[in-house]
Amino acid sequence: MDARDRWLLAGTVWVWGTVWFAIPFQLGTVPPAVSVCYRMLLAAALLWCVLAAQGQPWRMDARAHLLSLLLGLCLFSLNYYLFYLAGIHLKTGLMSVLFSSIVLMNALMARLLLGSHLQARTLVGGVLGILGTALLFYPDIQAGGRLDAGMLKGIGLTLLATLLVASGNTASAILGRRVAVSTFTAWGMLYGSLIAAGLAAAQGHGPAWDARPSYLLSLLYLAWVCTALAFLLYLNLIRRIGTTKAAFATLLFPVVALMLSTVFESYRWTPVASAGAALVLAGSAWSLFGRERPSQG
After folding, report:
1. Section 56-81 average pLDDT
2. Which member of 119, 137, 204, 255 has the lowest number of beta carbons within 10 Å of its beta carbon?
3. ∠ at Cα 295 (290, 296), nearest 5°?
């Protein structure tokens, strides 16, 4: 990784580390699919304004539009909706642990669809990161309750959503070889907002709004910072270092979130959580900064 890659990684991890502080203000009045629609529509609008202001190309061929539609489905709409549904049955900690499996999913998809080599260093680092995430959220896992039908449903939904994200990452890697990241991201978010609107309509939900200022402010932050900016950083990172390595950003941002929680919410680090953070950092450093054969994924 060169200096630019490190900045892209740091920016992605930092922004996504703050996302958990904004999401609670979105819950309650507005159905989740409607909020996702608003979020993606606002993010897409910002990116379209950037494209226009900078005079960047916005036209794509039919294949790129199909891949951008897949991106909208997997990264910008259905995945969020499934995570919301899973949250009904699972605690956030267990969902985070299951989602950390994206490192291995990305590696397998990169091997199957992009022709990348499976690097032992990356796989070992991914396993260390997953174990570390489990330790970070061990209290949540321990308090999750017995394994019943509801929990199994939540586990299935979380893994399905994670698989969708990995598929979206792969689609972005293919698109990044042919189209500017800002262009296909703008289209993907536009498609994502339309898919989210369709999901809301299928559930019988029309336009809804929460009059609290906190809803609007958190929505703008989630749309413009945690979506438009964060995905530009992340998808550029994928284009430069591949889907497998870029996925380590998803392991690192919970560590940042807990560090911020220490400052603003008096989170107390236990020896188990500290060991978990150390494993995540060690696994990520081992995979991201160690020397290995060049890979295309």
Report:
1. 94
2. 204
3. 145
